[in-house]
Write a structure and sequence with these properties.
Blueprint (H helix, E strand, L loop, with lengths): L2 H15 L4 H8 L3 H8 L7 H11 L3 H16 L1
Helix pairs in contact: 1-5, 2-3, 2-4
C-alpha cells in the first residue's frame, strides 16, 4: 500500500470517528471540501501544510496521526 492511500484511509477514519462530514471538516480546517474529498479518495496529493491543518481540525496530535498511519500501513501489508 502506498503512503498516499494509507493517508487517505487514516484521514477518513479519523473524520468519521470525530463525527464530521467533509463539509464540517472543511469549515473547521479552512481547506476546501473538494480537496478533502480528493485526498480521501487518494486522487489528490496532500501537502504537509494541509495535512497539518486537517490533523489539527480533527483534534488529534501529529504523533497520534503518525501512529494511526503506521498501523494502517502495517494492516495493508498483511
Amino acid at each position: 500500500m502506498s503512503i498516499k492511500l494509507a493517508t487517505a484511509v487514516t484521514l477518513r477514519q479519523l473524520r468519521n470517528e470525530a463525527g464530521l462530514s467533509q463539509e464540517q471538516l472543511a469549515r473547521q480546517s479552512g481547506i476546501d471540501r473538494t480537496y478533502i474529498s480528493g485526498v480521501e479518495r487518494s486522487v489528490r496529493n496532500i501537502t504537509l501544510d494541509s495535512l497539518e491543518g486537517l490533523i489539527g481540525a480533527l483534534g488529534v496530535s501529529s504523533e497520534e496521526f503518525i501512529r494511526r498511519l503506521h498501523d494502517e500501513l502495517i494492516k495493508q501489508r498483511s
